[in-house]
Amino acid sequence: MILVTGATGHLGRSVIDQLLKIGPAGGVAALARDEGRAADLRDRGVDVRIGEYDDRSSLERAMHGVERVLLIAGTDEERRVQQHQQVVDAARAAGVQGVAYTGRTLKDPSTMANVLMDGHFRTEELVRASGLPFTIFRNVLYMDTLPRFVGERVFETGTIALPAGEGRVAFALRREMGEAMANALAADVWPRELYHLTGGVAASFDDVAAELTRLSGRQVTYRPTEAGAFAAQMVERGVPEVVARRTVGFMTDIANGQEDEVSPDLAQLLGRAPATLHTGLKELFGM
Asked: What Pfam families does its record include (predicted)?
């Protein structure tokens, strides 16, 4: 049985959707904090187990009879590493055969600007130190973030203004990453230790603007901005300062080339080429 944590989130549901296509629902368990939010999964035959990252005993109960665990990163950035340690410790105590983790692919973590990503690499260390068979899925920045980054009024203003310089990202769709993870975890043999899940081509925001122009028939142009001024403008618009800092961190890492690595791993796990920027944007913007 495969247990997917964070099962009611977007990524968790994508993984479970694919696992249900591959094999019987009886081989899939979902960890959720809120039984109500997981009701539809139970209706599909998934074994819903209630537990929280901060509650070790609930995690051990949830892992009873489980062979493989996919640990989807928690959203509490301050407590993320401690919570992940709880999950790994519970897995070891429950006799789980292996743990997989959803991390981040950055070219050089030692020089990253977005310090919030540090928790992912600290989690990698504790997973490696667990003594359990493990797999790390290092995920590139979701293509799904683009509507939020470029703004809901992008077709009205005709401008994408971000402090990403000429940096490029090998964007990939979150649902395809979930599908790839499910394929790896459902294999008869334990998957290899590290995968880099990226799109097939690294694209700049100039490329994003060009694709949005092509899809909409309206001219969209990318204008690089200065990070400090960009953050100040976000705060002036009412965006919480922590969110502004996080966004600038993402953009700075993009500008510094941290997200431009292209790997064949996603395509290999999918058994096909991942969505292109054109097809992904068409899906995300409903065009």
From this structure: NmrA
In angstroms, rounded to a whole number, what is the distance separating the alpha carbons of residues 98 and 179? 19
Residue-wise DSSP of 48-107: EEE--TT-HHHHHHHTTT-SEEEEPPPS-TTTHHHHHHHHHHHHHHTT-SEEEEEEE--S
Per-residue pLDDT of 130-154, as tens digits, reads 999 999 999 999 999 999 899 889 9
d(CA 105, CA 199): 12
Give me the residues of the chain with pLDDT under 70, please.
Answer: none
Check if the beta carbon of residue 169 is closer than 8 Å to that of residue 259.
yes
**CA gyration radius, the chain:** 19
Q: What percent of the chain has pLDDT over 90?
A: 83
Which residues span the domain enclosing 227?
Answer: 141-171+200-260+275-287
- pTM (two decimals): 0.94
> Is 165 a domain residue?
yes
Distance CA 13, CA 90 (A): 22
Q: Is 124 inside a domain boundary?
A: yes
